[in-house]
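Collaboration report, partner site 2.

Our partner group contributed sequences for two proteins of shared interest, and the home lab folded both. The records are reproduced in the order in which they were received, starting with the first partner submission.
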Amino acid sequence: MTGNDDDIAPGSQVLNWTVSAEDEGLRLDVFLAQNTPQAYSRTYIQNLIREGNVTADGELVTVPSNLVSGGEFVELVVPPPRESTLEPEPIPLDVLFEDDDILVINKQRDLVVHPAPGHYSGTLVHGLLHHCSELSGINNIMRPGIVHRLDKDTTGAMVVAKTDRAHLHVSQQIKKRLMKRIYLALTHGVPEVESGKIETRIARDPDTRFKMKAVARGGKDAVTWFRVQEVPDDGHALLRCELDTGRTHQIRVHLEYIGHPVVGDPMYGGEYPAYGLQGQALHARELSFEHPATGERMTFTAPLPEDFTAVLDRMRHDSL
């Protein structure tokens, strides 16, 4: 993009703002992520900047970390959606609910949600494309329908958007902390208190690319509420964890932080593999949100996977 309207592809959306005094000093990518009406991810915004889709006072800007100035005129061109090159794959899905707007599934273990380096096939997205013909196009062509994610080896309830309207509505509920997300986690050791609040900031671990960590400064605020639901034996606890925020690996990081990592977690201190589990004993048990079309409050409960249930039963039996 050069600032000439002739260079704008047909079907593009052109958005512009005059930077207010309140926003002066923000990073360009942060400013755009906060001000675009669509639920674009910050990564997508950064890609748009690098690809030459942003000008400031008529000058091309390609560095996401540039700071905006008060009174500056910023223009963003959002290109029309590119045709997806992903091939549908017949991956079995455990569907808890489906209508014209959303799809709620009980995600199985060992399933990556969307394509990424090292996982260009066999993802949930490939299975969704086989299951239904329409998915939301917001974010990018590699993540159609994906509003929020679960880790590869985390099981449980997850909502997918079929339309852009549904995607925006559900995304806003997550952003405003109106979506209720409850997990069950089997931990090493038993917390000293029956219930509590874990509040830290979470940032990427500078020493391990794919790992997150609780930090005193920087990162993003993260809050998890927990309650001991059961003590199946002397060495473990089944915790009910409710997310107030939704940071990457949040529950896994927080439970390691309080000294009780998730059983079977290969990254955050849990013995791996453990008790026949090929991943962490973490399950998205309950999901509650407002339906994007009807406004009805809906709650979905995902049954525990068989291997998780088997581990609990074994612990209960061995403790007798």
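Second partner submission, folded after the first:
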Amino acid sequence: MTQLNTAVEIYASDKNRDALREKVAGALLSLLKSAKAGSDHQLQFARSYAALAHTKEQGAEIRNLLDGKFQGLKIDADLRWHLILCLVERGMSSRAEIDAELERDNTLTGALSHERCIAAFPTLEAKEAAFKKATEDESITNWSRLSAIQGYNRPIQRHLHEGFVDRYFDLILETYNSKSYEVSTSIIDLLYPSYLISTQTLAKTDAWLNGPGKDSHPTLRRHILEAKDSLERALRVRAIDK
């Protein structure tokens, strides 16, 4: 399922991605409906379907999953948060709903899931707050920072990431030099604009490697070079998906 999601979100061309999302989600929904009630397959199909649902009608099925309308599917706290996150990033949930969910699951895991959902709202304001929290807030835990990044970096919201690319490259050198390895690498690796797959992103990556990052620490350069390799691979594959 992870590889299938990567094929759609990373390797499909821009003009084909939405149609592929709808097609794959439709196939997953059929598999979900025919899966044995209470089985691991049913659970995996439900999670993957929710991640790829594209149309308004498919989004409504995420709500049906959350409401327990699929016989045998155990809706535990982890699955509930996953489904709510998928609704949030599609503009199909509200702050009131995620606040109520936190009251239902008032645990550390619930609090982190709540933070992830806040960052996943499909607005520039949500992305700005998550980006600043991840890169500037020194008071938060590493888990909280990771939740903010995960909520920020939703593939269906890639259009909201465009204004952050230059800011990312402006801060990574100072981030690596001033923060712990764990903190700096989570920011550098997970905030790289991996869903903005274009020659423009590649050019900005090369500009950093040949400019501000030319004499940076080899470990930092390795992280950016690995991200560049993944970007170049995606560009090669997309060129075939015409």
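Feedback sent to the partner group on the second submission included the following. The mean pLDDT is 97. DSSP finds 13 helices and no strands in the chain.
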